[in-house]
Amino acid sequence: MPIRYPLRDEPGKTMFVFEKLGKIYGHVIKDRTDKSPAKFVFETTKYDTLELLKADYPEAE
Description:
Elements: E1 3-6, E2 13-20, E3 23-30, E4 39-43, H1 50-56
């Protein structure tokens, strides 16, 4: 199951984190609202660790 967390600098968007072939990458998804479904925004570049990904895309507190 992928890790997911809300993004600190982009309210209304969620990061879904995946691992493939030893690399970590994420999908940024715009959250669902009453008037529109959730939407895929973009895929991040691949990172060596989850900490590096979270440094570029920090988690909301």
